Amino acid sequence: MTGSAATQSAPGRGSPVGEVTGSAATRAAAAGGFPSVRPRRLRTTPALRRLVAETRIHPADLVLPVFVREGITEPAPVPSMPGVVQHSRDSLRRAVAEAAGLGLGGVMLFAVPEVRDAVGSAATAPDGALAVALRDVVAEVGDGLVVMADLCLDEFTDHGHCGVLAGDGTVDNDATLLRYADMAVALAEAGAHVVGTSGMMDGQVGAVRAALDGAGRQGVAVLAYAAKYASAFYGPFRDAVESCLVGDRRSYQQDPANGREALREVALDVAEGADLVMVKPAMAYLDVVARVRDAVDVPVAAYQVSGEYAMVEAAAARGWIDRERAIEESMLAIRRAGADVVLSYWAAELARRAG
């Protein structure tokens, strides 16, 4: 067989690489030699990628956590959370007005009181830091923003735990529920639209729901921190609220080893009347977010916590990662896992980018 005959019987053989005739290309494609399905077609331009994106970040899905510190007149930076501050009353008003203008879904208020005691008395005081902040925020934005308040005692106790301590130093679950019930009513009276039950006490949602309904506050919603893990990623937050905690909260927050347990906690909270449920932290628990989303019909939130924020900011400051891309990618991951609502310290920044 001559060289030309061999070439004719086996198209492309002996030819320069890539030199394939039209008829040969057709036969090769028909035989499966070329991919007939090319997903890359939909990735070729930014406009195409935007058109077919399965997950989007919208300001209305984001909630901005904010800290207000009693007794200061200027915002105080939080060293372990670059760009985050403890607000004064005036700077808090400006921050929530901006949040409303950006179209954010809401704000979650945390307070840093001047005086703390064993039972967290300031948490229920009408003139306490959190109640005053709520009245200020509602006066500033009205119903233009969902105003949420953290319902827990850890910022207000001199021992830093989320509840009342028993004589042996453990957290007394049922005594704590009485304090939560009082705090729920106090926050509702100060103007909260949503209270976030974050203490991980058994029965907390039921106790808070009953207290709100009994006080005629049926319209106040409960965001249950239903699956809140005893995480190492909370460290910077404890700086932000100047926590007095000694030891840890492993006896009441969830064990990071457990996923199925989260579904039990969520089911209990929904049965007790939770309007929304939350997984905290977010990034290390995306599997839990996805499982919770599949298990319930109520909205699912996730909290992109202080440690997640601080790690990105620290790495970006050293030039180790692309900051803006890392922020967006981390948020997309949380939304893709199934979170309807995300609490994030980057909420305002993401909203500005979206605008």
Protein architecture, described:
This protein has 13 helices and ten strands. It is of the alpha/beta class and 355 residues long. It has one domain: Alpha-Beta Barrel (TIM Barrel), CATH 3.20.20. Residues 1-20 have low confidence and may be disordered. It has an eight-stranded parallel barrel with strand order 1-4-5-6-7-8-9-10, surrounded by nine helices. The radius of gyration is 26 Å and the shape is globular. α7 runs parallel beside α9 (260-272) and α9 crosses α10 (286-295). β8, α10 (286-295) and β9 (300-304) form a beta-alpha-beta unit. The chain has helices at 3-9, 22-30, 46-51, 89-101, 129-141, 173-190, 204-214, 235-240, 260-272, 286-295, 306-317, 323-337, 347-354; strands spanning 62-69, 76-77, 85-87, 106-112, 146-151, 194-197, 221-228, 276-280, 300-304, 341-344. Helix content is 40%, strand content 15%.
